[in-house]
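Lecture notes, unit on protein representations.

Consider one protein chain, 363 amino acids long.
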Amino acid sequence: MNWDDTAAPAEAPDGALTADRLVGAAADGEDQAVEAALRPKSLDEFVGQVRVREQLDLVLKAALARGATADHVLLSGAPGLGKTTLSMIIAAEMNAPIRITSGPAIQHAGDLAAILSSLQEGEVLFLDEIHRMSRPAEEMLYMAMEDFRVDVIVGKGPGATAIPLELPPFTLVGATTRAGLLPPPLRDRFGFTAHMEFYEPVELERVVHRSAQLLDVTIEGDGAAEIAGRSRGTPRIANRLLRRVRDYAQVKADGVITRDVAAAALRVYEVDTRGLDRLDRAVLKALLTLFSGGPVGLSTLAVAVGEERETVEEVAEPFLVREGLLARTPRGRVATPAAWTHLGLVPPQQPPGAGGQQGLFGT
């Protein structure tokens, strides 16, 4: 199989803000190297996403039976859930080569034309962060997906000529973390769309056990459960935590990962029982102790924790909201009762935002 990994990787929306976080879902260089070894090679090996796997299995087997290329596939979901892995599995199941690139790497229509014109028949083109592709390239992609041809413009001004270029049938696999940013004309050209859900702890335990076996790490069931429970529903984070717990077990213990070893290791790395790290807890603590649970404006909250507004909004808030620890309201951010309980604090007698505190902390 010809895997072309030379294209520029997609950059997460929060960019470098998540690269140094142990519980950040964006992949850094170390993650990419390890993931290549840990990735499942077939749908049967892929853990979780049961409905997506069943639907995709039907699409691929039907295409193989017809002797045709598979329909174009759109995969959406948060970073770290397996979109790139599934694209490679699609190529493997179709016995086809795969070429990998990303939306930010395609800034001109010519960039896309160069890639499309070099594709082989049946090849899989994986386009990560497809919503970040430039508009001219996006418009060229419409025709390529539907008619397997592109018009290459030669020359400039009144003398410019459009030369039609026929393309061999190929399968485009697009991946996006923000499906809502895709224009309807592009989204409608995908024959199969799937949304990747966050994983349940039981599924992440299977991921941890499988990765531990591949990494030649001895891990007990309760140790895997401890790591899975702190992995924020994301396999990439589970694998990253496993590697850090492995390091701790080798240095501080006998190399075997038990629940106690995993818990001790993750205390060192400041990942608590719900998967919150230093930044998450700093946001919650500021909201609870400085602003009595809110409501408080995002900019004010960011200043209180010494971070940029974008860092709080894009890095910390999504997980806190999903965990039911923080709520976004028209008047600002408000802590939920679960946040007080998680940090072991007693909520004020007066409900957040009641009485004279309304609107006190900005918007």
